[in-house]
Amino acid sequence: MNIKRNILLNPGPATTTDTVKAAQLVPDICPREQEFGRLMRDLGTDLLRVVRADPVDWATVLFCGSGTICMDACVSSLVPADKKLLIVNNGAYSARAAAMARAYSVPHIDLSFPIDGLPDLAEVERTLKENPDIAAVYTTHQETGTGILNPVREIGALAHAHGAVMIADTISTYAMIPFAVDEMNIDVCMSSAQKGIQGMTGLSFVIARKSVLTAAKAYPVRSYYTNLVMQYEGFEETGEMRFTPPVQTVYAARRALMEYFAEGAAKKWARHTRTINAIHEGLAQLGLKEAIPREIQSGLVVAVEYPADFDFPRVHDYCYERGYTIYPGKMQTSSTFRLCALGAIDEADIKGFFRVFEEALRA
Ligand SMILES: *Cc1c(COP(=O)(O)O)cnc(C)c1O
Predict the structure, then answer these.
(1) Residues with a CB atom less than 6 Å from ligand 1
(2) Which of 13, 39, 55, 258 could form a disulfide with 194 if both were Cys (CB 3.0 to 4.6 A apart)?
(3) Which of 264-301 are b and which e, b meaning 16 or more Cβ less than 10 Å from the residue's Cβ?
(4) Interval 285-311: pLDDT, tens
């Protein structure tokens, strides 16, 4: 294959290997064939291994859609009729979950915190105490807009102490930051094939405790297409996704996951760490300021404050024409752009980027 290699520094879709790109070139197949069902079932089991979820107690529910479809499925499916969802919100992605709760009229509390810091755990605890009807707590592991890593383990412990289910949007940390669902006090998490596993867009998945899925059978169905229980049971009964799956993306995801296990979780995280360190170093050399203190960053995304007279579109275009993609920020309070360390990239790619970026700033 001779495909141009672009370095994507946006927060997903990520740069993929040629072998993952090539894995999409397969004979046409009807996804109702048993062979394809087995492929999806095995993929689901392998996706559990990434977060050390025991297949006896946990299930993967596959969806055809971008990562947001998993958020939609969880918010619309996991809250009983007479109970509430608590959203611990310190950024754009938890705010999106709150917007979904409003759209589906899911009773909820949108517990908002400033987007440039961590949520206040004492306030989370007080809210849980004062509202015994909270059935589930939702937060975002990494707020990808700022690169802040949230204390999911601590929030999950509080949720469990108050009898609530812990739902974490781990879309931008899964298969990058190594974690085990049990140790993190997670009951439900999610991701999307174009992020940590370095696959293609169009396949997303929720990883849930089977006991949570069983309990949710009695909850209102607020969305037909994205209902988590219907999607789960549909696959269990037929070995097929309820509606047409993204066939070629599934093959690419299988290949990507093979490459993930071949690289190894610890080695992959070390590579992302090398990559982000090269980003920190490059920024420091140019005297550019990071918007979020290093101690609360995820190690995957850096939000950078605009230098004086910065023209984002012109710098973007200059870099883009040379194979590097930078991404606008998601903070309303200040002008930032983002540099991310996900995907099949390494330190050397970042060094290459900074040569071009410096030229762009001069030009
Ligand atoms: C990427 C991402 C999503 C999903 O975004 P899509 O554009 O729907 O794929 C959700 N949450 C977080 C934290 C993300 O980083």
Answers:
(1) 11-12, 66-68, 93, 140, 144, 169, 171-172, 192
(2) 13
(3) ebeebbebbbbbbebbbebbeeeebebbbeeeebbbbb
(4) 999 999 999 999 999 999 999 988 899
